[in-house]
Amino acid sequence: GAVVSQHPSRVICKSGTSVKIECRSLDFQATTMFWYRQFPKQSLMLMATSNEGSKATYEQGVEKDKFLINHASLTLSTLTVTSAHPEDSSFYICSARDLTSGGKNTGELFFGEGSRLTVL
Amino acid sequence: AQSVTQLGSHVSVSEGALVLLRCNYSSSVPPYLFWYVQYPNQGLQLLLKYTSAATLVKGINGFEAEFKKSETSFHLTKPSAHMSDAAEYFCAVSLGYSSASKIIFGSGTRLSIRP
Question: Has residue A103 got a pLDDT over 60?
Fold first, then answer.
């Protein structure tokens, strides 16, 4: 299957700093990527849809100024947590679809390994 | 609106026993349905998917699921559990058929395997 890679896998930062998480599609191009957030022992919550070359679409209740998303190329989307606070500590996971088969939507999303953010 | 409900946040079975994880969906249109597995501190791996072809779908690691429209269910099964199956399992539904369609996840079921 298609490979999605995230970096860093773990990051610890001080309160008030900003942290950038990268999501790359390694063997395919992704015009759309999805960012999820997962609290301990809970399900994945969709935060936003990242669109290559245009603004991201945020889910209701997600602060777009807190979670900045940039999708500058067909293989890279970044999530920046600005002025991070302890309540932003979480597991962030990105995903994308592989449409290389003639652009056909095969349905599934391929997920990165996740990035665990700890804000002290 | 589409949604999925997973019954049972925790399921425990003996090694070698049948695994049954329950998922019911709600959708106004024929759904795309998925089962994903997550191991601790990792991303999600696709086990199998239903995209309106065969109703009995076979996936990786010996798992399969059957789409039952009359019951609005998509339960995940495996005939014989293995210790390595211990993980978190998520049922999910796609909110459309386009490449930009979102996927929404159920609350998850933690599967434990007893020796």
Answer: no
